Amino acid sequence: MNARSMIVVAGGSSHRFGSDKLMVEVNGRPLIAHTLATIGPLVDECTLVIREDQVDKLSGLDAGVNVVVGGSTRTQSEIAGLMAASPSALIGIHDGARPVPAQPMMERLFDAAAEFGGAVPGLPTRGIFVDRRDLGRLGGVVRVQTPQVFWGPELRAAYLAAAKQGFEGQDTAEVAHNFTNLEIVMVEGDPANIKVTYPEDLQLVLDRLGGG
């Protein structure tokens, strides 16, 4: 299972940002275009999951990715992406609002997922935390990031099982943990793997892209 696939979820409401943050311009390009440009060279295929009302805007990005319309919840949108991805690949699910995941972290994730079944990036936290003592390596109180990478067949089956039960996970790892027998390890994340939540976060992205 050497092929690498990434699902980029871009259908959030952006209510804390105040507008559609994925379309805000950063260095002359929409934020989501930077995410896809960073992810694309590191995987064999990429699927972008969007809302119905984003189709006209995001289908024209010409980013060399598959574009599918998601559902009313994050889990349903992730299922839409999984159905469009190659099922035999290692599959990662990534938040479109994280535009600059570094290649070393990506390599750690795919290498660990290939070996163990699933891998999640995490960092020691100073603020809001998630207690993930069920995951190895960096388990404990950590700040969890994306992408989160898993064996494709098991991940797809897990999401279909979760959908039948009406289960909505907080993240991909929670779905995999509850509906597979995969070993999931936590590997070192990247402090610069910024998630844009508020307008002021854009300056951090500009700094990382060299446009600040």
Detailed description of the structure:
With 212 residues, this protein is an alpha/beta fold. The chain is 33% helix and 25% strand. It has seven helices and twelve strands. It has helices at 31-39, 55-58, 74-84, 103-116, 152-165, 172-179, 201-209; strands at 4-9, 25-26, 29-30, 45-50, 66-69, 90-95, 117-124, 130-131, 136-137, 141-144, 148-151, 183-188. A hairpin with a 2-residue loop joins strand 2 (25-26) and strand 3. Helix 3 packs antiparallel against helix 5 (152-165) and helix 5 (152-165) crosses helix 6. It starts with a strand and ends with a helix.
Give the percentage of residues in beta strands.
15-25%
Computed structural class: alpha/beta
In total, the number of strands is 12
Largest sheet: 10 strands, mixed
**Rg measurement, Å:** 16 Å
* Secondary-structure element order, N to C: EEEHEHEHEHEEEEEHHEH
What's the overall geometry?
A: globular
Task: Give a quick set of tags describing it.
single chain; 212 residues; alpha/beta; two-stranded antiparallel sheet; 25% strand
Secondary-structure blueprint:
Elements: E1 4-9, E2 25-26, E3 29-30, H1 31-39, E4 45-50, H2 55-58, E5 66-69, H3 74-84, E6 90-95, H4 103-116, E7 117-124, E8 130-131, E9 136-137, E10 141-144, E11 148-151, H5 152-165, H6 172-179, E12 183-188, H7 201-209
Summarize the structure.
By secondary structure, the protein is of the alpha/beta class. 33% of the residues lie in helices and 25% in strands. The protein starts with a strand and ends with a helix.
